[in-house]
Every structure is written in C-alpha cells, then in structure tokens.
Amino acid sequence: MKIVAYGVRQDERPYFDAWQAANPQIELQLEPGLLDETSAALANGADGVVVFQQKSYSGTILQRLSDLGIKNVSLRNVGVDNVDAAMVKKLGMKITNVPVYSPPAIAEFTVTQLMQLLRRTKEYERKFAQQDFRWAPQMSQELNQQVVGVVGTGNIGRAAIKIYQGFGAKVIAYDKFHNEAIEKQELYVDSLEELYRQATVITLHIPLFTETTHMLNEQAFAQMNDGMFIINAARGPLIDEQALIDALDSKKVAGAALDVLEDETKVFNRDLKGKTIDYPVFSNLFARDNVLISPHTAFYTDISVKNMVNISLDSNKELIETGKAKNLVSFR
C-alpha cells in the first residue's frame, strides 16, 4: 500500500513520521508542494493521496488522479467547498475530511480576537509604537455585557458558546439544524433576522454553501444594531467584503476580526515583504485600527495539526483497505 501526502509543511513532519513508524507496512511519500495538474503525476503508483490546501481541487486535477487509478482522497481539514463535487461523482472518487480536529482551538481563537476588539488592543499598540502611553480616548467594552449571536451550533459553535457563557455574556444562536443540548438551554432564535436584531456580536461557525455565500451582505448589515462586532473564522466568502467596508465606514460595524477572506490565497501563508499586494479590499481592511486580520490560523495548534495528520492518514488507509471510511464526505 502506498499513500502520497501533498502540501506537507515542516511543522507536520513529526506527526507524519510518527504515523509512519506506527504503520511500517505502508509506503508514505511526503511532498512539500501542493496538488495541482502537474504534481498529480508524483502520485503515480499510489493507492491514495492525502492533501491540504486552500486552492481548488479542480476537475482537471481529479481527472489526473483518476487516470492514475487513484480514487481515494483524504483532506487534512474539514472544508470541502474547494472540491469539484460533480467531478467526484462522475469519476466515482471517495473523499474524506477531518470533521473534528480541535473545536476548542478555533473557538478559543475567535473569543480572544473579540476580546482584543473590545479592549482596542490594536489601537493601543499603534499608540505605544509612537510612545503615546495615554489611556484616552480608547475606552473599551466588557465581554460580559455583550449579546453574542452564534451562527452555527456544530462542534466549534458549541465550544464557543461554552466559553462565552463562562465570561458571563448572553448567548443566542441560530442554526437550521438544532442541537439538543443548545435547545434545552433555549438559546435558539427563530431566524437570522431576529439574531441580527438582538445581537451586539455575531460570530460565524458555518460551512460555505451556495446559500451561505455573502450571507452577511448590505441587507444583513442594515438589520443589525449600530456598533456591531463581526467575527469570522469559518469561510471568507460568507461575508461580502465590500459591504463590510461600507458598514465599517458608517459605524454600523464597530469592529471585525477576520481569520478568513474571500481571496485569502493572494496573501495568506505567503511572505510578501517588500511586495505590492494586489488585493485592494484586503489593504483597506488591514489598515483599519478596528479590524483584526489573521492568516487562517485559528486552527493552528499542536493538537489540531496532530489530529489533522493522523485522522486523514487513518481515513485514507481505511478507504484503501475497505472502500469505506467513517469520515467519508457525501456530496449533495
């Protein structure tokens, strides 16, 4: 049995090495480059591939793998919105993901980002860099006084709810599919519109589908309270970035923390020192004192990375051996 892993980073290698040591009967080939139309050839002779990237798994890439006889593909992350679902079905491929690698990692990150917005740390850091150590006028707000609207009550959303409740914030939630434990707490509101009206903070924890693309748009922002805080560590296209800029300009939105962007591959996980960034919306947001941008690192902890490697490899091994896997993705 042979598995080829693409996009392997140095920080992942110890976990790949440990898995290889525990599975010496399997040939594991590690490739630092991402899977694309050319690098697909590196998987020749393999039974499956393990991948991680924000770039698209296009129909052409999947066809190249299929032509090599590879039908088993395991993602080291949860999101599958960048996979050509139609081609997966056409080629009879099997895709697994890592639906749960560390919900607390992402939940904790989103809460800490909100707290930085509330305490206006970016503004203080700018002042300190100029040797201005005065308090005013950066008076901050308290988390325990916020009404936090959690959109999506899956594993990450529920982890976030526990943390917010621990800080004494009032939590309300919306999800088309109710969780029994959250329902017992009577946290659900009936509609997104109701959540927009009640919340002072909105934090997104939902997948990207056609119907959720630009769910926070001009119309949605118009329904919110003035001075809203927006947190997104889910998927960039959930937010219409130009509409967010307009909402920031009008002070409808008091601050935003974005761990994901619509065109994040232009900037995230790249060293752009001394280079011109051709992403005007990013530059606009990045320059603002009340916007925090992080490079899709909410997940990035030792526990998360270890789980992403181990679960994806185990899933690929299971696919190859049995044709089944508990983390098999069903594309609609």
TrEMBL record:
Stretches assigned to the D-isomer specific 2-hydroxyacid dehydrogenase catalytic domain: 7-329
Keyword Oxidoreductase listed: yes
SUPFAM superfamilies: Formate/glycerate dehydrogenase catalytic domain-like, NAD(P)-binding Rossmann-fold domains
GO molecular function: D-lactate dehydrogenase (NAD+) activity; NAD binding
Pfam families xrefs: 2-Hacid_dh, 2-Hacid_dh_C
Domain D-isomer specific 2-hydroxyacid dehydrogenase NAD-binding: 112-298
EC number: 1.1.1.28
InterPro entries: D-isomer_2_OHA_DH_cat_dom (IPR006139), D-isomer_DH_CS (IPR029753), D-isomer_DH_CS1 (IPR029752), D-isomer_DH_NAD-bd (IPR006140), D-LDH-like (IPR058205), NAD(P)-bd_dom_sf (IPR036291)
Coiled coil: none
Family: Belongs to the D-isomer specific 2-hydroxyacid dehydrogenase family.
UniProt protein name: D-lactate dehydrogenase
Species assigned in the record: Paucilactobacillus wasatchensis
